[in-house]
Amino acid sequence: MHPAGGSCRYRNMDMSDYDAVLDLWRVSGFTIRPLTDTREGIERLLVRNPGLSIVALDGELLVGCALGSHDGRRGFLQHVAVSPASRGLGIATKIVDICLERFRALNLGWVHLDVVEGNDVAMSFWQRIGWGPRDELTRLSFCLLD
């Protein structure tokens, strides 16, 4: 039996993690978005939101990550991922717990995240750890990219 969070160590994400995080997102099936998921886009996020993005390391291997940000009122989690070989060990739950603790320290009222429609595995995970849909809200977006 593995302890919650596996035998990983957890730390703040920094730009030296970018290539490994990008590889993790790809193997996890994430769509890599132009502009926002580039090296420059992630660096902007990390600079504007210090200490809110977390990585999990098993030895030297990066096996999990989450991007955290906030607008001063609400927190946002994005791109929470664990490598397929490391799933089921509590790593994502531990990463999310660390992020939530840091959001609480900023006195934020809510934390939001998006789940891609049809991603039943992700939806099951989030609901299992206490997250629920907001039926009274509909996310609207406007693309700034040409």
Radius of gyration, in Å, reads: 15 Å
Named CATH topology: Aminopeptidase
- Tell me the overall shape: globular
Largest sheet geometry:
5 strands, mixed
Helix-strand sequence: EHHEEEHEH
Count of beta strands: 5
Strand content: 15-25%
Task: Please mark out the parts with pLDDT under 50 across 5 or more consecutive residues, or reply none.
Answer: none
Helix count, per DSSP? Answer: 4
Briefly note the structural class of the backbone: alpha+beta
- Biggest sheet, strands in spatial order? 1-2-3-4-5
- Helix % is 25-40%
The N- to C-terminal Cα distance equals: 50 Å
Mean pLDDT: 91
What is the oligomer described by this structure? single chain
Which CATH class?
A: Alpha Beta
Compute the number of structural domains. Answer: 1
Tell me what you see in this structure:
The protein is α+β, with helices and mostly antiparallel strands and 146 residues long. It is 30% helix and 21% strand. The protein contains four helices and five strands. Strands 1-2-3-4-5 form a five-stranded mixed β-sheet, sandwiched between helices. A hairpin with a 3-residue loop joins strand 3 and strand 4. The longest helix is centred in the last third of the chain and has 15 residues, at 91-105.
What attributes characterize this protein structure?
single chain; alpha+beta; Aminopeptidase; five-stranded mixed sheet; 4 helices; 30% helix
